[in-house]
Amino acid sequence: GYYLTTWASFRVVGAPSDNKGWKTRFLYISHPQGWDFGLECLSPTSQGWVISIMDNKAEGLRKEIADLRVRSGLEAVAAAEQRASEAQALVDHLRVEEVEVRARRNALEDQTLKMTGTLEKLKVELPVEAIVEYKKSASFEMGLVRIGQVSYEYGYWVALARFKAQDPDLETEEDPFAILPEDKTITMVTEQPFDDSPLPPKGVVSL
């Protein structure tokens, strides 16, 4: 705490006549939470001095409070700027992903249009029997499979972009169609013919 020592004169009731009614004493004034003076017991000179000290201390406290408010404000501004920067980074990332999804969608749509155009051309150029035979071919069946895969992948990327926009903190598998290292050792033909033949009766082993 703070301690103040000052000289002050005060009248003592019932004092002997030889001291003319005045006594000079040391006053020790302190307070655990701050300054507190009984100014009525101090001389006018001491009162002015104490008031000056109190004014200086109050001014210092006001400056400390102002500094704390400024520092607190700066910290709040910095935190808000950090949050805004993170949000902007997320928005930019989602925009890039949106552009990529649109590019994939356009490529898939172009592929679908080409396959549809080829089919329409065949309808005009080939007789009906040839069209029937072509629909039974493995290439046509694979084309249908690819069209289904195109639609599935496009729906997946659109759903993934919406999911990330709603829940950016959750982790997702970025490319489920990528070839994993453990799958590279498995041999698989590029085109697998579609087999819709009926299953053999029970008890009959197919060779």
UniProtKB/TrEMBL annotation:
It comes from the Eukaryota. Residues 51-111 form a coiled coil. Keywords: Coiled coil. This is Uncharacterized protein. It comes from Ensete ventricosum.
